[in-house]
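Regression test case RT-17, inverse folding.

Input:
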């Protein structure tokens, strides 16, 4: 029997420190890359590349997410590895749940996109501001593997750690899991808004967050299962962007 302190009704208060740490590290990673880049540029008298923002974002996110995972590991190093392996093993039983939920999500997403055309023109949008910012980073082909790693894999795991583990699993011990699930869904949607041109850009992230919460709770709060769905969705989006860049 694996010793799992997370199953205790006692709240892991230190895990809430991951929330401000998450936002802090996102900036720290980019600052490190920009700092190193400027030193290299000054040393070798190079020109600042036109895609410097994408480079800083891509490699900075790798640093940021790696630091977040390492800190979480150090917080629970005496028992976290066996728990993670056990959760991954258990997640295999929920593969069909993930696939069916993803298909339902796509149907809802397409229905919402269709419904948008009936709104006044100034409320319509093809891509959210968040999606536009992501797409802009894919202008440089050699960065695609880095962006796939961060956008398709590492980013989803980091977000699930914050929005499902901390905001549902731990906060739910205090305010009920349903209440925590509602907060998680709302905060997830808010996080993905970047000065959108339409207030309706909020909705896709709201039902996207709902489906992630659904599989998380349905699987008995198995973080590996919600990570599977999140990685599946983001990986498909990332690959579709790369496909469009190749054949546009």
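Golden output:
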């Amino acid at each position: 029997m694996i010793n799992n302190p997370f199953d205790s009704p006692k709240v892991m208060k230190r895990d809430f420190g991951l929330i401000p740490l998450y936002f802090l590290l996102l900036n720290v990673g980019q600052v490190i890359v920009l700092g190193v880049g400027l030193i290299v540029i000054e040393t070798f008298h190079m020109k600042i590349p036109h895609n410097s923002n994408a480079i800083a974002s891509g490699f900075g996110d790798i640093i940021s997410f790696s630091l977040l995972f390492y800190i979480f590991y150090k917080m629970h190093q005496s028992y976290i590895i066996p728990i993670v392996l056990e959760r991954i093993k258990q997640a295999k039983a929920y593969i069909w749940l993930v696939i069916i939920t993803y298909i339902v999500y796509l149907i809802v997403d397409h229905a919402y996109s269709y419904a948008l055309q009936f709104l006044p023109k100034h409320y319509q949008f093809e891509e959210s501001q968040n999606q536009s910012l992501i797409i802009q980073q894919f202008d440089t082909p050699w960065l695609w593997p880095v962006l796939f790693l961060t956008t398709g894999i590492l980013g989803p795991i980091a977000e699930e750690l914050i929005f499902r583990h901390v905001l549902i699993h731990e906060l739910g011990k205090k305010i009920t899991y349903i209440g925590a699930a509602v907060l998680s869904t709302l905060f997830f949607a808010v996080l993905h808004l970047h000065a959108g041109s339409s207030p309706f850009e909020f909705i896709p992230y709201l039902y996207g967050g709902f489906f992630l919460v659904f599989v998380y709770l349905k699987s008995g709060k198995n973080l590996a299962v919600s990570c599977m769905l999140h990685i599946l969705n983001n990986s498909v989006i990332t690959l579709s962007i790369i496909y469009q860049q190749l054949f546009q």
